[in-house]
Amino acid sequence: MKKVLPPLNALRAFEAAGRLGSFKEAAAELHVTQGAVSQHVRLLETWLGAPLFERHNRRVKLTPAAKDYLEKVGPLFEQLAQATARYGLPETVSRTLSVNAPATFTLRWLVPRLATFRAGHPDVEVAVETSNGPLESLKEDYDVVIRGGPDTFYGYSMRPFLSEERLPVCSPALLERLPLRVPGDLRQHTLLHTSSLPRLWPDWLASVQLPALRPAAALTFDHFYLTLQAAIDGIGIAMGPTALVSDDLAAGRLVAPFDGPRLPSRSYCTYVADTKVGDERVVLFRSWLEQQGRAS
Predict the structure, then answer these.
(1) Same domain, yes or no, for 74 and 193?
(2) CATH number of the domain encompassing residue 43
(3) What is the C-alpha to C-alpha distance for residues 181 and 42, in angstroms, rounded to an integer?
(4) What stretches pass through the bilayer (predicted)?
């Protein structure tokens, strides 16, 4: 005899909303929109032919019959999770770890180091997507999100792993053509800007008491990695984040003509949904990032 089962996604939404007493909190736990949870619950109510919740402004309350239903359904999800954990991951199941990180950070810091992670953990595939948008605007459910911080987001664990400051950097060849002995010598140079970070040069010049300094020229790029590449190519002087230019400074592709001052900057942090904090792949990748951050 064919077993009759309710729509399982709808049942999962009902279980989370009933246990938490809130569609909003259920949506955060399931990493979907509040509207999606509401739609799933309505679908289950239609399928059952009976209401499941009493709606009260921002909270919801189970009907007596739904409360009894939840007491029977809830343990089934826990049993399913335990059975799956005991069974383990089949070899055919993907071990891909999805990561979302800012483009310049990915290009200049993460990609050059990823080979060491792969060497240490060959069974974990890493899929990296770049985005500079805020965490709450991301539509995909990533395992690890890298952004500036520290910030607090509901339902997410945050851990900093890489700190940085900002200071002027340029190519050694540029200094040979036009030496920089004091900050005032910047009047002879081209200053490189990034449209999304317009305050970097004004703030640094103000810190050396030269707020009205007018350079020989200025050039603005829409991406920070283009600004840094222009500095490497000897086009001008950029405000370089120490974390992202450390390899170039070590290799001699860039130099820092002044010891200071350095502008403070936000740290790089990992943001992981609370439901994924214990994932073995996430734990390994976070620990590796923190180790690399200390080494940098």
Answers:
(1) no
(2) 1.10.10.10
(3) 70
(4) none
